[in-house]
Automatic annotation (TrEMBL):
Residues covered by the MOSC domain: 26-160
The organism's taxonomic lineage, starting at the top: Bacteria, Pseudomonadati, Pseudomonadota, Alphaproteobacteria, Hyphomicrobiales
Gene3D superfamilies: PK beta-barrel domain-like
Coiled-coil segments on the chain, per record: none
Record-linked PROSITE patterns: MOSC
Record organism: Rhizobium changzhiense
Protein name: MOSC domain-containing protein
Amino acid sequence: MKILALCTGNPERLPGKSYRTGIFKHAVNGAVMIDAEGLVGDAVCNRKHHGGVDQAVYVEGSLTLDWWAQELGRPYEAGTFGENMVISDLDNRAVAVGDRFAAGDLVLEVTSCRIPCATFAARTADPKFVARYKDAARPGIYCRVIKGGVVEAGLRVDHRLFTGEKVTMPELIKTFGRRLSEADRARYLASPIHYKLRALLEAGR
């Protein structure tokens, strides 16, 4: 595996919306510094729901994006879903919470899946796309930064699998907002899951 693209964005307004968003990402040339908050210079406008230490970097796998290109009937341009990094030969369905991606000095740890929102729907100009994205069960991957570093496209990526019980990206998006069984709740809590989801699970929600 290798990094195919690194994407950043500037604050922009969506057509017909009054607020600005950082969802418009574009591949950048050259090296990018990634620290605990993500890609340096990347815009995160709504920090209540986006960004932060447990979703500092949003990753998409190239195999998943190839699938979407076929589904949508058009080529996929890196950054279209608002992702920060595209990794070659990666299928999002094969990724679990606690998996790590290492590239050079950089080490990322998977915390959760991407849950599509109203901004995502507006970005795609398709009000039904949120439901379609959820049904596809190939969600993007949020990561925390275990160790920061400077990376660039072409750098080799090592996918290190979580050694505990798996909580996969497809499972996470399918169970989002639903009450878990006690066994599943314990399994989720045994993984290094996103702190917000951990708080909900610990509260019994």
